[in-house]
TrEMBL record:
Gene Ontology terms, MF aspect: ATP binding; ATP hydrolysis activity
PROSITE patterns cross-referenced by the UniProt entry: ABC_TRANSPORTER_2
The organism of origin for this protein: Nocardioides pocheonensis
Family annotation (InterPro entries): AAA+_ATPase, ABC_AA/LPS_Transport, ABC_transporter-like_ATP-bd, BCA_ABC_TP_C, P-loop_NTPase
SUPFAM superfamilies registered for this protein in UniProt: P-loop containing nucleoside triphosphate hydrolases
Domain spans labelled ABC transporter: 4-239
Protein name: ABC transporter ATP-binding protein
Keywords, sorted A to Z: ATP-binding, Nucleotide-binding, Transport
Superkingdom of this protein's organism: Bacteria
Keyword Lyase: no
Record's GO cellular component terms: plasma membrane
Length: 260
């Protein structure tokens, strides 16, 4: 069953068409990837889905309802959570307080009755950053800050979680644990839509992948299908940062798609 539908969405910024008649859907309970070269329109799609960007045309449906004109906070209440490509934590607060604030906002009046800090500790534990609880958010490594963003998003118990380049700054072991956590979350009913440049991560955890290039969806399918799709490889090879493009195309071509 489809939880999110992006239907024929166009976003224009003056003369720039950032999203060009993009149509894709996200199946409930899946980990879905949204990939594409730099400037392909991935973050703009996330902004349209969360309500930060009004599309020039097209529709967004969440759980069967048209939310194209629904306010950002109402979409969050309905269960759409996200993390940002540019980190957005409160730098002067501790890691634990950042999560506490997210929980307080989510729980509102009910939060008054929350017994102790059990939920905060549990969320930090879940994303693997409990040891940083007392540190200021602006003093922790980037990878840890990304996991903090994830903990804050999870505090709102989203049904759909949008992650914008969540693994940048994580080392290999952390990325592996992070991938396992995403699969676990999806299994618990927190559907994941992820923008990510780490192809090994994308290929190993995603059930389905949509590929954007110049704002259009050029391919959709399972990791195995996407990996061998010539259109996808061409898109990455034509990428302005040739070194990285070639690297991504190469990793797409490798036959080491991990079995789920
Ligand atoms: N607010 C804006 N005003 C004008 N142009 C914008 C704006 N936001 C994005 N763009 C342009 O829209 C296009 C898509 O940008 P977007 O940030 O969505 O790409 P992306 O796929 O997330 O790229 P990256 O992988 O680098 O994060 C780019 O050409 C970008 O310069
Ligand atoms: Mg982006």
């Amino acid at each position: 069953m489809s939880l999110l539908q992006v239907e024929d969405v166009v976003v224009q910024f003056g003369g720039v068409t950032a999203v060009n008649h993009a149509t894709f859907e996200v199946v409930a309970g899946s980990v879905t990837g949204l990939i594409g070269p730099n400037g392909a329109g991935k973050t703009t799609c996330f902004n349209v889905i969360t309500g930060l960007q009004r599309p020039t045309s097209g529709h967004v449906r969440f759980d069967g309802r048209d939310i194209t004109r629904t306010a950002v906070h109402r979409r969050a209440r309905r269960g759409i959570g996200r993390t940002f490509q540019r980190l957005e934590a409160f730098g002067s607060l501790t890691v634990a307080d950042n999560v506490r604030v997210a929980l307080d906002i989510h729980e509102g009046f009910r939060g008054i009755f929350r017994p102790g800090d059990h939920d905060v500790d549990e969320l930090l534990e879940r994303v693997g950053i409990a040891e940083y609880a007392a540190e200021r958010a602006d003093s922790i490594p980037t990878g840890t800050a990304r996991l903090l963003e994830l903990a804050r998003a999870l505090a709102c118990q989203p049904r759909l979680l949008l992650l914008d380049e969540p693994s940048s700054g994580l080392d290999e072991a952390e990325t592996e644990a992070f991938g396992a956590l995403l699969v676990e979350l999806a299994g618990e009913g927190c559907t994941v839509l992820m923008v990510e440049h780490d192809m090994d991560l994308v290929m190993s955890v995603c059930d389905e992948i949509h590929v954007l290039d110049f704002g259009s969806v050029i391919a959709a399918g399972t990791p195995a299908e996407i990996r061998v799709d010539p259109k996808v490889q061409r898109a990455y090879l034509g990428y302005s940062d040739e070194g990285q493009g070639a690297h991504v195309a190469e990793s797409l071509d490798e036959t080491k798609v991990l079995a789920r």
